[in-house]
Amino acid sequence: MYKILLADDERIILDGMAGIIEWESLGASLIGKAQNGHEAYEKIVHKQPHIVITDVKMPGMDGLELIKKVSAASPSVQFIVLSGYGEFEYAKEAMKYGVKHYLLKPCNEQQIISSLEEIIAELKRQDVHKKKTAHLKHELDHIRSFAADQYLEGLLAGVAQLSPPPSLAGKKIRLLILKGEQSIDAAAREALGSALTAVCSSGEWTVLAVEENAAEKVAEVFARKMAISQAGELRHAGQLFRDTAEASGDLHGSAVISKMIRLIADELGNPNLSLKWAAKDMLFMNPDYLGKLFKQETGRNFPNMLHEYVLNMR
């Protein structure tokens, strides 16, 4: 229901409008009446009507002053102006503040209803537009969130030559690293708000990239032991993760090495299984970099581990 406020210093006209118009049939409700501009303004501030029907000539604060003051504070409020003065200057002054409905007294019930119907139809169109815009924003935020999560996962996996989503280029973050998998659902994302840039989760650990100045505050949300990286650009998340994991006694391994070990087990019978094949065809990484990373995190090189798996299968 759209809320309507009436303002007129003539009690007969005020009560007449209030009683003759079937407000509910218009999808509206009458929320108040005022006999001067000051009273009208106080009720507008307190009750937040969608539409105000006001006389021009009122004591204390006239209708034009009321429109000017309300338009500055609440520009969404729509006005229907009533006046017994057929001078163009009043209408011209009211139009400066977006007033589209200016009725000359005496005006009948149907004229007021027609103006109300036009304004309410426009308000409904605005409401539909707002809902569509909010829905599109939600969908866009979801897409951006997914792209950010995928980008972070790629960085932690060591995927070469990744291009960041445009909104994340040069983004300064810190990583929060939790042992084990932590569900970050829609409610949690909403609670963290803009502080959360991206999330990457596996069975081994969960990594959150957050605004560099919000790391400690976000950490409090989870109330769990975690490691927090130094600040740096998101594009350096892989190195930030490795540096933090190396400095922490509670964090071991990384996503790419976990994938490599699973790959050995799953592809043991594949004649193409090799470091080069895994790097180029499965993980899309530089083989030399992958080999160094594998040796750094497992203490063994890939061929030796592969040989051990083959021996254990016999």
Describe the structure concisely:
The protein is of the alpha/beta class and 314 residues long.
**Helix/strand order:** EHEHEHEHEHEHEEHEEHHHHH
Beta-strand fraction estimate: 15-25%
- For the record, what is the CATH homologous superfamily label of the largest domain? Response regulator
Low-confidence residue ranges: none
- The average pLDDT is 83
Q: How many beta-strand elements?
A: 10
How far the N terminus sits from the C terminus, by CA atoms, comes to 77 Å
CATH architecture of the largest domain: 3-Layer(aba) Sandwich
Cα Rg: 33 Å
Strand order of the largest sheet: 2-1-3-4-5
Shape by Cα distribution:
rod-shaped
Q: State the helix count.
A: 12
Look at the helices and sheets and give the structural class. alpha/beta
What's the domain count? 3
- In quaternary terms, these chains amount to single chain
CATH C-level label of the largest domain: Alpha Beta
Proportion in helices? 40-55%
